[in-house]
Write a structure and sequence with these properties.
single chain, Rossmann fold, pyruvate-formate lyase- activating enzyme, OB fold (Dihydrolipoamide Acetyltransferase, E2P), 3 domains, six-stranded parallel β-sheet, binds S-adenosyl-L-homocysteine, binds iron/sulfur cluster, binds FE3-S4 cluster
Length: about 475
């Protein structure tokens, strides 16, 4: 195992990047407009916030469209083939944009760039890409940009060794009321279908003190909700502190809502389950991806729990927090999955009754173990199965929504409704989206709302007058 001191990126390297930020700022005749396109999971969304933070420091400003931008950056995902196709398809489109505007700088970063051979491919086949970096060297963006802007060179740099932890980079947050905090990076689980461990590297946890420092700062800024991020937060180990210990520390801060994702079911401990009963700020919401309902498939997936063990954990969690909203991820059409095995996924969904499920057709990822497994189920059949599963879950989601009617729930208002500007939308602690009449002045506030009716996936409500004590 690497020592923590080898994992944290050195102050010296960071000082160098800061100097590069200044050099870029000096080299620019005018502030460039940048546009970042983010594909993939919350981890990438948060990485893009850091990329934006660095670009701001370099004197650049965000612009709302790609057409207006002097610099376009794609933060890519490769977890399924369609994610990758989307990134590549977009990049080809950029070639035309660049033909019209030769000064345009095009950059590609993130998980897809970290795939073996991708840097070479970009170097040879996509000459219009000026800048490319992987997940392990995102903090080196200032130096790479300096090469492009100051020296008019291409900068394609992807590191093969495992990445580290970078503290103290600037971040441009999506809004002032809800924030992501990374607590760990990478994954050691090697589920047989999954490319994430290959492109995000081995697990490494941030020091508890650093996370608390960041959370305190956010609390001071009036942030109402934080989401702790990691591919498998249950195996967090920051300077010896376990995840549940970190949660206890965070609960002492003045942040009304705390959430985390993602939890691997095999690692969800009794100590962590107890947190749902004891911590006042921890939201009654848990994303607990099960992937499949059949034990043979689970074993082939290398998930290291059985259907029965999973259901046992769900029961324990519900005993402590009966109102918890559980969500999950499901893969349909894993190599060799029979109809009977698929039906066990459906029956598990019926048994657990999730608030929502994210369903995916299995997508072979080069370099993973499952990609070598024989897979003779036709795509048509896989599509039929996923539709059936989605139908089942939809009925449950709607029933869960209907069961919320009549309750009074605190809602954190996120935005003015897209369809009706006399309405606002926000989430309950459990994670349901609620629409109710109100104005933009409520954004970022937690207000009590009576749930009056349920749609298929969302709720409607009316604000409740707060009784002055
Ligand atoms: N660390 C998280 C998941 C990250 S990937 C976890 O373990 O839960 C998000 C989801 O994408 C996974 O839960 C899985 O359902 C899905 N997924 C990952 N690889 C996939 C593949 N090759 N084909 C289809 N779905 C996949
Ligand atoms: Fe992928 Fe499994 Fe790691 Fe999640 S736990 S990122 S599914 S290997
Ligand atoms: Fe995609 Fe990378 Fe997340 S592959 S799902 S963006 S960790």
């Amino acid at each position: 195992m690497r020592e923590q001191k080898d994992i944290v990126i050195s102050e010296h390297e960071l000082a160098h990047q800061r100097a590069c930020m200044e050099a870029v700022r000096d080299a620019l005749a005018r502030p460039l407009g940048y546009h970042i396109v983010t594909l993939g999971c919350q981890m990438n969304v948060h990485d893009s916030e850091t990329i934006a933070g660095m670009l701001d420091e370099m004197g650049m400003t965000p612009v709302p469209t790609r057409e207006e931008a002097d610099l376009i950056l794609y933060n890519t995902c490769c977890v399924r083939e369609n994610a990758e196709n989307k990134a590549l398809g977009n990049v080809i489109w950029l070639k035309e944009l660049k033909a019209l505007k030769p000064s345009l700088i095009i950059g590609v970063g993130g998980c897809m760039m970290q795939e073996p051979g991708m840097a070479e491919k970009v170097r040879k086949m996509y000459p219009f890409i000026d800048l490319a970096f992987g997940t392990h060297n995102m903090h080196r963006l200032p130096e790479l940009l300096l090469r492009v802007i100051g020296e008019k060179q291409r900068a394609i740099e992807v590191l093969n060794e495992d990445g580290g932890i970078c503290e103290g980079l600037p971040v441009r947050r999506r809004n002032g009321f809800s924030a992501y905090i990374n607590i760990m990076y990478g994954c050691n689980n090697f589920c047989s279908y999954c490319i994430v461990p290959y492109v995000r590297g081995r697990e490494r946890s941030r020091e508890q003190a650093k996370i608390l420092e960041e959370a305190k700062r956010l609390a001071g800024d009036g942030v109402q909700e934080i989401m702790l991020l990691g591919q498998n937060v249950n195996s967090y180990m920051g300077g010896g502190a376990r995840f549940a210990e970190l949660l206890y520390q965070i609960d002492r801060l003045d942040i009304p809502r705390v959430r985390f994702m993602t939890s691997h079911p095999k690692d969800i401990s009794d100590e962590l389950i107890a947190c749902f009963g004891e911590l006042k700020h921890l939201c009654p919401q848990l994303h607990l991806p099960v992937q499949a309902g059949n034990n043979r498939v689970l074993a082939e997936m290398n998930r290291r729990y059985t259907r029965e063990q999973y259901i046992e954990k769900v029961k324990k969690i519900r005993k402590i927090r009966p109102d918890i909203g559980l969500t999950t991820d499901l893969i349909v059409g894993f190599p060799g999955e029979t109809l009977a095995e698929f039906e066990e996924t459906v029956s598990l969904v019926d048994e657990v009754r999730y608030d929502a499920a994210y369903t995916f057709i299995y997508s072979p990822r080069p370099g993973t173990r499952a990609a070598l497994m024989p897979d003779d189920t036709p795509m048509e059949e896989k599509s039929r199965r996923i539709q059936l599963l989605i139908g089942h879950q939809q009925k449950i989601t709607t029933a869960v929504c209907e069961a919320q009617v009549g309750r009074i729930e605190p809602v954190l208002v996120e935005e003015v409704s897209a369809r009706d500007d006399t309405c606002v939308a926000g989430k309950t602690a459990r994670g349901h989206m609620v629409n109710f009449s109100g104005s933009a002045s409520l954004i970022g506030r937690i207000v009590p709302v009576r749930i009056t009716s349920a749609g298929k996936n969302t709720l409607r409500g009316e604000p409740v007058e707060q009784i002055k004590q």
